[in-house]
Amino acid sequence: MNVLVCIPCLMTGGTEIQTLNLVKALITAEHKVTTVCYFEHSTNMVERYKQAGSNVCLLSPDGKRPVGITNTVILLYKGLHRVLREVKKDVVCFGRGMEVPLSRKYHDQIKELHMNKIRRAYKEQELNYN
After folding, report:
1. Which pLDDT tens digit goes with each residue over 87-118?
2. I need a labelling partner for 12 at 20 to 30 A (CA). Which of 58, 63, 83, 95 fits?
């Protein structure tokens, strides 16, 4: 499956490390992964994603946020539209647990993934109450 992982920043922090672990797991499972960073990024973290096997697309080449909401919306709209058109991914992952199928081909697979997460959380909650 082709997966697009979207993240606002690629700096050195907890979210970026967890997302990197997700990317590594997806690649280990033989999925093709492209990571899109909207704003700030460090060269080191971008390189770590590339070393993991992900293609990395930077919407803000200079790593700066646009000034004003209008410029931000334009950057995100044009950048994501371009990336989606170029890479034609089957699934987009907006952060932890927010997978969205872009084609019906993977709808059932993604739905089952989410249902399994819900079932596990429910079981854990039952165990905590007993």
Report:
1. 765 555 555 555 555 555 655 666 676 667 66
2. 83
